[in-house]
Amino acid sequence: MSKAGDNEGGVSDWRGSSKQPDGAAAGEKVLSKLSTVSARPGWTKVSCPCCVLERVEPLVLVKLKDKVSPETKRWLLRLIGAPQKDGGASLLAHPGEDASGDVIILSAPRCTLLRATEELGLCKTYRNGEMEAFSYSDRDNFKDSDNMEAFLTVAERQFIVKYELEGLRAKQDLRVPGLPDSFTLHHRDNIWQKLSSAGVLVDMFPLHFPDKLKNLSEAWYSGNQLVQPLDAVNEYFGSSVAFYFSFLDFYTWFLLPPAILGLFIAYFSGEVKREMAESVSVSKVIVGIHDDSEPLVSGHMLQAVFSMLWSTVFMELWKRRSSTLSYRWGTLQLAERFADPRPGFHGNLGVNPVTGRVEPLFPDWQRDLRMGLVSIPVVGLFLGLVVLGMLCFYWGEAQMQQLHKNWDSVLTQALLYMPSVLHIVYTNMLSTVYKRVAQSLTEYENHREESAFENHLTAKVLVFTFFNYFAVLFHIAFFKQDVPLLRRRLASLLIISQLVNQVTEVVIPFLVDRFISAPNRAESEDDSHQDKFRNQWTLPPFPGLFAEYIELLVQFGYLSLFSCVFPLTAVLLLLNNLTEIRSDAYKICRLFRKPFFPPVAGMGVWQIAFEVLSFVSVVSNCWLLLLSPRLQQLCKEGGMSSTDVLLVAVMVEHLLIIVKFIIATLIPDEPDWMRKKREHIEYRSMKALRQQKLQNEES
Amino acid sequence: MSKAGDNEGGVSDWRGSSKQPDGAAAGEKVLSKLSTVSARPGWTKVSCPCCVLERVEPLVLVKLKDKVSPETKRWLLRLIGAPQKDGGASLLAHPGEDASGDVIILSAPRCTLLRATEELGLCKTYRNGEMEAFSYSDRDNFKDSDNMEAFLTVAERQFIVKYELEGLRAKQDLRVPGLPDSFTLHHRDNIWQKLSSAGVLVDMFPLHFPDKLKNLSEAWYSGNQLVQPLDAVNEYFGSSVAFYFSFLDFYTWFLLPPAILGLFIAYFSGEVKREMAESVSVSKVIVGIHDDSEPLVSGHMLQAVFSMLWSTVFMELWKRRSSTLSYRWGTLQLAERFADPRPGFHGNLGVNPVTGRVEPLFPDWQRDLRMGLVSIPVVGLFLGLVVLGMLCFYWGEAQMQQLHKNWDSVLTQALLYMPSVLHIVYTNMLSTVYKRVAQSLTEYENHREESAFENHLTAKVLVFTFFNYFAVLFHIAFFKQDVPLLRRRLASLLIISQLVNQVTEVVIPFLVDRFISAPNRAESEDDSHQDKFRNQWTLPPFPGLFAEYIELLVQFGYLSLFSCVFPLTAVLLLLNNLTEIRSDAYKICRLFRKPFFPPVAGMGVWQIAFEVLSFVSVVSNCWLLLLSPRLQQLCKEGGMSSTDVLLVAVMVEHLLIIVKFIIATLIPDEPDWMRKKREHIEYRSMKALRQQKLQNEES
């Protein structure tokens, strides 16, 4: 990077030309002196000559506390604009309307974007048309590397701004002007984190691009598209979101075979009406004696075996698709391991043995110890509390019913609802507490990479949530061993929970947005840009993809774990997902602030969750088939004792698990052409390493 | 490599100076002209000036057919000595006593060794003390790269000679002098393979180094060493053998905990005498009603659960040890994928997409198809034949006993043995046929890498052999459900088969060698070197490590699958292995010709076999515990039905499998320092690749 002082160009007005000269070249001052120089309105100046742009694109909005002192804001603007070697972020900042406003609007110059692209390990199109890991020094050979808007996606540019800001570390001990003396930044402190916890920074979010958003919406959910514009989603929202929608899409298409099979079985076994009748009559207390009077056991078994093998094939093919998408979106070789640790990471300063850089180090065994001795027991404890709550609920219900039988008054009638109400309150409280605990536990585990942190956090919440959802069903299936009740419960859950989901997720936010929020922030054409940006802040923040993924996982659980008791599951899920795709797309485009998402190479821990579920499904389905009274009756007629039947079931289960393992091993996780590309890269790296060592010798 | 013609130096006499000039510079002639030039006695000349050595080390002996024509031999010597660019092997050859003898003795010059070291991807000590993948162009920075005897191990030098010979391919169509016209080498034919199948080449084996062998024997098995000289074994026999002995060593030490536990349980449950009595009284037909009258069920269970978890911990720690050894022996980054395909590989010529070289290509899907549609069904068929044989045996035995009961004569008495005899004959025939079939199947699968070929062949034979060994035990355990019979069978197998093994493997060869073969080849000090070398040929060829590994695997099977019925298994195995280490060492050093072994990074497919067995053991142990009449009685007293007991057993089994999975996931497969080294190499490769692309641009 050229020295900041060499360049006198700056950007002074909104979207203005950057060529306008600016005498007060503030950028060249080192960080410690920044607080003494006064700020100008308009964009801060670019710190290297190659980055001088015709047009500055506002990417990210930072919301400061309401009454931030102008010195602090000026210091912050200076910090953001200072070159990286001086401890700054090398970004472009705009103070909004004036120096006393509470927003900063950020953009990034070309050099910063390109360097961060290399640091993140993103792949871009090389001049030979292949996707190659981007290298700053080799930038001229990459396609479009002079035009950032074509070279990087919107999501990448915005993420890089966040990445640079969150990577800011104090180069020495210093005081921040305008803040109390008690607030001091120490050497290597993470500036962004400290300022956030001090309340100076309230929020930071990427800005929407109205034109692009409009085009995306039209291609995504306005019409009756069968295919989602996944590349456009990746361009606008980033690969995390694009992977979620790709998976949803892939999953929905893959639901077709089990749905057709389910319809077929239901139709031919004449079960359609009965199932429908049952699912409607959930609340009625009909003891399910007649339920299994005439099912086609062979149909159920077919469905169960099919869905067990289907789930493995599905997951294996998804892995192939996932790696293809990852290649296409340039996230196949993300170099998080080799980049700086995530902001929250702490440890003793030392030399990283892998990269040779000085950074905080934290031994792996200590992390393992913390996970083994603290995290796992605590998670186990909470799972135990869920079970305890369920047992108390069943006990309470039995007690209340006894009471009602004995006394039979309005009071006892009302008391009948007590256990359910208490259980719901208990469960909700528990899950709120658990989420906080999971966050602290994962912080305590001190993961080096952001993705590792996210995956561990997700895994913790996921296990708990899943357990919460399925504890009752498992209880019915394995302890009560009551298939008719299970079937009713499943049908009602499928129908009701999906309806509730759609309503709470989309309809309510839509109504709120349309009739309550929107009138308050009615935009007019002559609003200033700042006002428009500020308006985006009034939208609620996007709650993350956890809720979306867990919904799919729970669905997948219903389908794979209990499909044999309710053959129409796949049909219902298929119908649900066709609307889900559209409603999720609408939601993320219109109802929330645009979220930051890091580039990712796949679904992370969710993929493992789906795979685990697919194996658990074998156990569950074999067990449910075994419970079927019809099967037991048939076997008795065939002269087998219940122990023999159980033995056969266990053998079938083991066999199916082995078959699933073999299928999973046989289907490669990446397509052939990808493997060849990967091996080619490995080969070239090997050669290059040898070459380089030699050259280092010679020089 | 310098042009062969530039160098007039050659080696003319045995271990003579190579400086002696030699006018008939034959090496520079291209291959097609070789047949016309006459050969000299003594070593062929070195093809590049840097390789001229003071002393030539005889490494490998090639045995030709008895009456090989001198022209053919001369052609062969010429071919071996010709530089690689002319289609030769760039090796040094010596024609033995004279040009009409039937042996060729080979050595390798420095350049050939170093180039092959790079091709094989061996790691050597860099000047900074780290193990780095060797690079020919960077050779001067590697320790000892000027002294081949210190730089490469004996085994590596000998393997490289074999590697070069087997990689010889005809550069154009040509006739071999002295062979019938019908024998023509076509373009790209593998010369060594063609000559072997034509009977010109009878054998090829590495030569022993008597001094080194003596030192190795002394350090290995002569005294009462507790520690094996594994590095010396790797140096002399190569990493394949060294890995086998490392595993044997590691396994033997790991047998201590279960052995101590077994002794403890056996002693406290007073079972020692009974077990001993039983194992001796195998042949007596005592119906085992009293057998389970007083066992400590808790002891058995403890043993079973312990051995199930032990086996996982053992395998995981072995993996760590294995990767450490692989780093130490420089085989961690073997580049077989990037090297030339193995000699037997065929396919259409094309450009390898990974390395960019022209070589035969064979699509993976076609190989997968062949495996799926041919290999797997054929292997299944043979496994079916094993089962069929076993069923026929049981049926025949029942018939004969019936016959004996009805007639009771000497004839029927003799006929009683018929089924056993027939079964043994059948099994042996089957396994002989199967071995050939497995070889052809694996050839048919057309694997590109030698290691893949070996692994697939081993896997096929392994499955069959293992099935053969265990079919009867499984039959007793799962169908007859006769624990006492199983216990007797196991005890007798353990004791008798180990005795038989030790006798057939060591005592008989030793006796044969000492009293029959040795007098015939009594060496005297004044024998010529050639005679000494020729004597080595009279030793039988080493039968390979398959028999050794399968013995360990079967042992491990006895221990992990059925340990809960016979707690002293580990003790017996421990005793056996302590002698096994010594007898195996003696065997490979003294009783056989020295074998060729490629450098390997681990145990290959054997590791998978041990791991699979460790998981199967959970199923088997849970089942055996369930069978215990004592347990069933206890449960009945506790008011559980047999179905309930079965359910509990299944749950315990699932739980144990999950625990094993978690243990296997939690223990990393490589030590922490290795992971860091590996990541460091990846990081440097990534950097180097970027660097190189840039330099390619600039140049």
Q: Main sheet of chain A: which strands, in order across?
A: 2-3-1-8
**What class, by secondary structure content of chain A?**
mainly alpha
Taking all Cα atoms into account, the compactness measure Rg of chain A is 29 Å
How many β strands of chain A by DSSP? 10
Largest interface chains and counts: A-B, 46 and 45 residues
- Domains counted in the coordinates of chain A: how many? 3
| Percent in strands of chain A | 5-15%
Low-confidence stretches of chain A: 1-41, 282-296
N→C terminal distance of chain A: 24 Å
Mean pLDDT of chain A: 81
Shape of chain A: globular
Number of helices of chain A: 23
Measured as a percent range, the helix fraction of chain A is 55-70%
Quaternary status: homodimer
Q: Strand count, sense and closure of the main sheet of chain A?
A: 4 strands, antiparallel
